[in-house]
What we know:
By secondary structure, this protein is an alpha/beta fold. Helices cover 39% and strands 10% of the residues. It folds into two domains: 1-37, no CATH class; 82-236, Rossmann fold, CATH 3.40.50. The protein has helices at 6-9, 14-19, 82-101, 120-130, 138-141, 148-157, 168-173, 179-190, 202-206, 210-213, 225-236; strands at 106-111, 135-136, 159-166, 193-197, 218-219.
Amino acid sequence: MSRCTAPVRGHHSAAAAAACPACGSRGRYGYGGYTPSYSSYSGDTSYGGSGGTGSSGSGAGRSGGSTKPRWSSAGSSVFYTTAQVQSLTPIRQAIETSATQQPDLRDVFLCHAWDDRHDSAKELHDLLVAAGVKVWFSEKDLGLGVPMMRAIDKGLINSRIGLVLVTPALLCRLPKEGVADKELSVLLARNQLVPICHNTTYEALRNVSPMLASRTGLDTSEDTMEKVAKKIAELVKI
């Protein structure tokens, strides 16, 4: 009996199925033709598309994905995985509601480890600002002589959603219950946050904060930091 080559070569096209000695003559439904088992549509949709299946805990599939959410502009070149669209859709709904009720809020509050303030956190901040996002960032918004915790408190209140930059430094800081841990506690309670994994994994995060790791977010191992910033910019734009 001929053996199916799908486990090795995959059947992601008609040509691949036709070349399989076991499947080439019968197709998916036994009519001799091949019917793809996935959707090739990548238009404006909230959930559909053919993006890669998310990896465990991260929602990150093949780099870039192939789906566009309903909030993407017609000319956008940014694509998402299906899991990313599913996880970001309720965040977008909260943003739309907030924009109607409180139009003057900042777009995002950037939660990060103190150690990252001059490198990865600043890089993300600068990319977001360049994309037109209004960011509350401690390095820019904590003035001299201003009580730090009260300023952070106001920043949290006056931002629509939170971004949590998950790095090795943050994973070290959270168990020490410092400022980042307090910020994260507030953001988790509001349930309006997007984790962004950078130079670490969601599996490592799960060992420190299972609640944060349960949120599907973005990952710079799948998207560049620039692309992550573009996705956030599309998410918050009203």
